[in-house]
Task: inverse folding
């Protein structure tokens, strides 16, 4: 892929994720999904930047807010939307809904509802990779809310002493429900905290997709060379409530507006591509149209898919290897 | 035209009790105004409009139990009608 195509496909992926999330949130409010969602709008550059630096075989393990990671790892809008509606055509066959997207065969070790658990699973995957001698890496996503959780640092310590090919990505949208991260960070600096474990640790602009991609690419090279884990704290922002319908009083409308108008990852990247001559208005407009069509198709596909048959409820709950 | 509807606010929420219309039919509203108060299993919730305009017909009476997702009224932009 040439630079132009690569940049445009990164932009389009971010646009697709935004449209997907806003559409899914509206459907959830209308009661058309199986439960609410954790909308990732505003955090697209983290997901797309990370996946742009990974090979298809590399592993990710993620959190309760994982649609953006999943779509960026090339899961289709159809299979993700169908899962949100718990339809058999969903990525988890309709058993998982929003928080349990994943497919081990495609290097996605799942989202899950336990804060910071995905990072530990990512560490386990990294151990598996090292034991198997594979040339790949594992990314463990964790929210800022997982930065004061014990298991996070247990996993980082273990990855560091065993030099595991783990990249810890803090999808730091600065809030854990209503708790502002700066109010609860002793020492004030997450990267500094991580560097105490003797690994490269940095804080970067998570709204800049290229900065994200380059930081992860460097961490990947470092891990593949056998040097062990890297910790990257990516500063980003979520535009909507913690979950569908949540409208807290814990942050100002001005703060949200400021991030939306001055630091939006999609608008910033599009502006950059225009300036560098890598994007023209007609192509940009076409992208918007094709993204809208893709998401509408995903919704229709999902609505027209069946729910799992209740008689199959015992299927897909274990590997089958332990049964006679 | 913006449809103002009963939001699904929890997995178990199937309907809400329409407690009070704050804005009357034909009244001018601004984006962010509270249109109605509803009660769910857990809490009282303000139903807010996202656009400015004129409130349309009230589609449910106070005291009604309205299923989640149902439109209770609309906000009409200038020149629009129901
Ligand atoms: C172990 C555990 N504690 C508490 C919760 C309840 N909970 C769900 S999401 C959340 C906040 C998570 O914040 P963060 O890690 O910053 O992720 P974000 O929602 O911002 O993406 C909490 C406390 C949980 N799911 N798991
Ligand atoms: Mg957070």
Result:
């Amino acid at each position: 892929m040439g630079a132009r195509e690569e940049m445009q496909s990164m932009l389009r992926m971010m646009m697709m994720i935004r449209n997907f999330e806003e559409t899914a949130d509206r459907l959830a409010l209308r009661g058309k999904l199986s439960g609410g969602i954790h909308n990732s709008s505003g955090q697209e550059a983290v997901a797309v930047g990370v996946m742009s630096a990974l090979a298809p075989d590399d592993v990710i393990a993620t959190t309760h807010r994982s649609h953006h990671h999943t779509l960026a790892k090339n899961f289709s809008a159809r299979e993700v939307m169908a899962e949100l509606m718990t339809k058999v055509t969903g990525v988890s066959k309709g058993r998982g809904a929003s928080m349990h997207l994943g497919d081990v065969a495609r290097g996605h070790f799942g989202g899950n509802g336990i804060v910071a658990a995905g990072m530990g699973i990512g560490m386990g995957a990294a151990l598996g990779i090292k034991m198997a001698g594979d040339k790949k890496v594992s990314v463990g996503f964790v929210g800022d809310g997982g930065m004061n959780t014990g298991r996070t640092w247990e996993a980082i310590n273990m990855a560091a002493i065993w030099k595991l090919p783990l990249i810890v990505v803090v999808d730091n949208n600065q809030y854990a429900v209503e708790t502002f991260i700066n109010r609860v960070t002793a020492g004030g600096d997450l990267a500094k905290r991580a560097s105490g474990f003797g690994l490269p640790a940095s804080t970067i602009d998570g709204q800049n997709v290229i900065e994200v991609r380059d930081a992860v690419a460097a961490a990947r090279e470092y891990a593949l060379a056998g040097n062990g884990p890297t910790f990257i704290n990516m500063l980003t922002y979520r535009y909507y409530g913690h979950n569908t319908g949540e409208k807290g009083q814990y942050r100002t409308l001005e703060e949200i507006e400021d991030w939306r108008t001055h630091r939006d990852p999609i608008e910033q990247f599009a502006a950059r591509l225009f300036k560098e001559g890598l994007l023209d208005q007609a192509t940009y407009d076409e992208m918007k149209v094709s993204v809208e069509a893709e998401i509408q198709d995903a919704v229709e596909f999902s609505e027209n898919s069946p729910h799992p048959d209740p008689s199959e409820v015992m299927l897909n709950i274990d590997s089958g290897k332990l049964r006679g | 035209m913006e449809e103002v509807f009963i939001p699904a606010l929890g997995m178990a929420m199937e309907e809400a009790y329409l407690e009070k219309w704050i804005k009357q039919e034909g009244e001018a509203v601004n984006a962010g105004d509270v249109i109605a108060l509803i009660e769910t299993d857990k809490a009282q919730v303000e139903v807010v409009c996202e656009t400015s305009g004129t409130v349309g017909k009230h589609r449910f009476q106070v005291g009604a139990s309205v299923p989640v997702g149902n439109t209770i009224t609309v906000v009409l932009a200038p020149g629009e009608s129901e």
User: Anything to note?
Assistant: The two ends of chain A are 49 Å apart (CA to CA). The first strand of chain A starts at residue 59 and ends at 61.
